[in-house]
Each structure stands twice: as C-alpha cells, then as structure tokens.
Amino acid sequence: MQDLTEGVARFRSDVFPAKAELFAHLATHHTPHTLFIGCSDARVVPELITGAEPGDLFVVRTAGNLVPAHAPGADGVAASIEYAVAALGVKDIVVCGHSACGAMTALAEGHDLSGAPAVADWLRLASASVARTAADGDVPALVRQNVLAQLTNLATHPSVAKALAEGTVALHGWVYDIPTGRVEDLTAAAA
Ligand SMILES: [Zn+2]
Questions:
Q1: How far is the CA of 21 from the centre of ligand 1 (A)?
Q2: Residue 54 within any structural domain of the chain
Q3: Residues 38-86: pLDDT tens digits?
Q4: Could you list the active site residues?
Q5: Structural domain boundaries enclosing 36
Q6: Which helix H or strand E contains 176, and what residues bound it?
Q7: How far is the CA of 138 from the centre of ligand 1 (A)?
Q8: For residue range 39-52, what is the model confidence (pLDDT) as tens digits?
Q9: What is the CATH number of the domain that holds 61?
Q10: Rounded to whole angstroms, how far apart are CA atoms 149 and 126?
Q11: Nearest-CA neighbor of 106 among 129, 83, 84, 73?
Q12: Which Pfam families does this entry report, sorted A to Z (predicted)?
C-alpha cells in the first residue's frame, strides 16, 4: 500500500501540474472517444498501450474481457456500455483480449474451477467460443475467438445496435501480446 501512497503523492507533485490544463478541462467535460473493453488482468493497461490521455477512454474491464449478451435485469457491464454509447456518444468500441489470459487458459485447458464458483459461472459465457475453437489447449486461438464473440455480443445491446444501424459507432477486436507489446487488430481487414 505504501507504493500506492507514494504514487499518489508523486501524482500530485509531478504528474498533475504537468497536465494542469488538461485536468482543468476534464473537471467539467467528459467526452471519451472510445469505449475500451479489456481484461481485468493487471498487465493490460489500456491507456498505456494506446497512448491515451485521461478523458480519452471509457474503460470496462472484466475477467476474460467478456461482454454478456443483452439480457433483462441489472448488469453493470450493460449499464456501462449503454452509458458510453447512448449518453457519451463514443465513436469506437474496442474489445481487447491478450496473450496468456488466465480466464482463456482455464477454459482452453479445462481447469477445475470448483473452488471458484463465481469465476466458473462467469466463464460459462465463453462456452460457445470454446466450442468453436478446434484444438483443446490452444489458448491463442481461444483468445481470438473470444474477442470476436464479444463483438457479436456487443451488437445485441440496444444502444450499440442503434448506433451501428446509424453508422455512428465502429467495433474493433484487438489482441495484445504481453511479451512483445504488439497489438493485433483482428477486425482491420473487415473495416
Ligand atoms: Zn485476461
């Protein structure tokens, strides 16, 4: 915790003054251009890998960067998506998977998740992606398949469906490779 406390102090003394004008603007403006949906994995830092500034990205991070398809009932992921698209008017939505994803590894390799029932329930959302990935244990293939499946799920959310129909939002599927820092755009060819 001391690291964080020192980090906060450094932010106040060094980082904040250097961007004082930006923070003054952000105090009264919230106009992110992109909804970034990534994995909760500590190694995948959206602002760092995209060079984004505070205020640029509206970020949702979930285990395995999973986006549940639209369904009735309260859902924090759905609420954040709707707010980003319908209220904030983001122009792009990125779903970003990554190498060595713990969630995808557990699914691809069939790990026993009986000791983590909430994780097991959540990862069941990726069952179709597992089924579509030909080889058992092929984590990179499942990571890619999973990203594409979340783009499909995104389109089931009414706010996203409306923005897609009106041509005001574009969906992108990325995979971030931790050892090389490379980002592969799975949707580049189709865009
Ligand atoms: Zn992950």
A1: 35
A2: yes
A3: 999 999 999 999 999 999 999 999 999 999 999 999 899 999 999 999 9
A4: 39, 41, 43, 98, 101
A5: 31-185
A6: strand 170-176
A7: 15
A8: 999 999 999 999 99
A9: 3.40.1050.10
A10: 8
A11: 129
A12: Pro_CA (PF00484)
Residue 68 lies in a domain: yes
- Reduced to 3 states (helix: H, G, I; strand: E, B; else coil), residue 168 is coil
| Residue tagged 């949906």 (tokens) | 37
91: DSSP letter: S
Is the model's pLDDT at 190 over the cut of 70? no
Q: Does residue 168 form part of some domain?
A: yes
Q: How many residues does the chain have?
A: 191
Distance 13 CA to ligand 1 centre (A): 33
Total domains in the chain come to 2
Same domain? 106 vs 173: yes
Both tokens of 119, joined, read 């994780």
- The answer to whether residue 190 is domain-embedded is no
For residue 17, give the amino acid letter: P
Do 66 and 151 lie in one domain? The reply is yes
Q: The whole model's pTM is what?
A: 0.95
Q: How far is the CA of 72 from the centre of ligand 1 (A)?
A: 26
